[in-house]
From TrEMBL:
Broad EC category: oxidoreductase
Name of this chain's protein: anthocyanidin synthase
Cofactors that this protein relies on: L-ascorbate
Record's keyword terms, sorted: Dioxygenase, Flavonoid biosynthesis, Iron, Metal-binding, Oxidoreductase, Vitamin C
The organism's place on the tree of life at top rank: Eukaryota
Annotated Gene3D superfamilies: B-lactam Antibiotic, Isopenicillin N Synthase, Chain
Family: Belongs to the iron/ascorbate-dependent oxidoreductase family.
Catalytic activity as recorded in UniProt: a (2R,3S,4S)-leucoanthocyanidin + 2-oxoglutarate + O2 = a 4-H-anthocyanidin with a 3-hydroxy group + succinate + CO2 + 2 H2O
Biological process, per Gene Ontology: flavonoid biosynthetic process; pigment biosynthetic process
Transmembrane stretches, start-end: none
Signal sequence, renumbered to the chain: none
Length: 375
């Protein structure tokens, strides 16, 4: 049988069993299943931490006498260290901004598939942005049960706006507005995370936006760069065998931070204390992941969280993910000197650009996939 090009088409065809290309290897099915069922049957008290950062909305400085802010710093530090993920409350993004974003993204995926194909990407030719479906380029060689829309969100002047949907009409304005809020939130969180390592509040953002690479023109000590915000809307259709499939396989994000909204349908699982924890809905919050770039800068004090996406038999899941990344070539990712000055805390990571880190991860995936094929 010739597979449909999009997972949505396969789901809508009414198949009762998923094709073999979507069945995960046996060693990946630990605690896989219908996301609704797993939540209903979960008797564990362990939950992803919820942290209210509202005391930092007005300023990112921490007066030594401000107990409320000190408690926020400690809560964020602990969540980033022990979990690598947290629900952020008090983030300052108005409900109407988040609702507009959800409506715009849901409206795009409600279009007929042939209309969405006008924005199709072409990974084979290097065009990653646009509408697509994950093919067999992951570690296992299997397909994932998702379609997606991916494009640069900020800086706006670098975005390829012809890849932004013209329908629904509100997509561009709603997405731009949300991007501005997330950029501000990223700065606030990076300040809090810097303070959590007893560093100046601007330290992490400075490291992510300062040109350290002499091969890139400009003054390597002075040139300030923009962090890049990449938007990915994940669309997970209803799946007849969720115990065999995943929306996205287990991975860590390469970003410094990742921000996640969703449509209220469960699906995120994170690895914590040697078990998979299924995220519960926390009204009004945004989920934040620590990514590889921040783990490197913090020399492992903050944990890049291993996570995956579940699917279910009942409802379409949609999630909006914004990846906050340093420029690919100009910024050198390396443990901060202040964190490796003591002999008991040697550097755990070798310096690399963000692009080099991506290449390292891609190489490891290719090697793992080759082993699977060879076996």
């Amino acid at each position: 049988m010739e597979l449909p090009a999009r997972v949505e088409a396969l789901s809508l065809s009414g198949v009762s069993a998923i094709p073999a290309e979507y069945v995960r290897p046996a060693d990946e099915r630990d605690e896989l299943g219908d996301a609704f069922d797993l939540l209903d049957n979960d008797q564990q008290e362990e939950r992803i931490p919820v942290v209210d950062i509202s005391p930092f909305l007005m300023t990112c400085c921490l007066p030594s006498s401000n107990k409320e802010k000190e408690e926020v710093v400690e809560a964020v530090r602990r969540a980033a260290s022990e979990w690598g993920v947290m629900h952020i409350a008090g983030h300052g993004i108005p409900d109407e901004v988040m609702d507009r974003l959800r409506a715009a993204g849901t409206g795009f995926f409600a279009l007929p598939i042939e209309a969405k194909e006008a924005y199709a990407n072409d990974p084979g030719s290097g065009q990653l942005q646009g509408y697509g479906s994950r093919l067999a380029t992951n570690a296992s060689g299997q397909r994932e049960w998702e379609d997606y829309l991916f494009h640069l969100l900020q800086p706006d002047h670098l975005a390829d706006h012809k890849l932004w949907p013209a329908h629904p009409p509100d997509y561009v304005d709603a997405t731009r507005q949300f991007g501005r809020h997330v950029r501000d939130l990223a700065s606030t969180l990076l300040s809090i995370l810097s303070l959590g390592m007893d560093l100046p509040p601007s330290k992490l953002e400075d490291e992510l936006t300062t040109n350290h690479n002499k091969k890139v023109k400009g003054d390597p000590e002075e040139e300030e760069l923009n962090m890049l915000l990449q938007m990915k809307i994940n669309y997970y259709p209803v799946c007849p065998q969720p115990e065999l499939a995943v929306g996205v396989e287990a991975h860590t994000d390469v970003s410094a931070l990742s921000f996640i909204l969703h449509n209220g349908v469960p699906g995120l699982q994170v690895r914590h204390a040697d078990r998979w924890v299924t995220a519960r809905s926390e009204s009004g919050t945004i989920i934040v992941h620590v990514g590889d770039a921040l783990e490197i800068l913090s020399n492992g004090r903050y944990t890049s969280v291993l996570h995956r996406g579940l699917v279910n038999r009942e409802a379409v899941r949609v999630s909006w993910v914004v990846f906050c990344e340093p420029p690919p070539d100009a910024v050198i990712l390396r443990p901060l000197p202040e964190l490796v000055s003591h002999p008991d805390h040697p550097p755990r990571f070798t310096p690399r650009t963000f692009k080099e880190h991506l290449d390292i991860k891609l190489f490891k995936k290719k090697k793992k996939q080759q082993v699977i094929i060879d076996c």
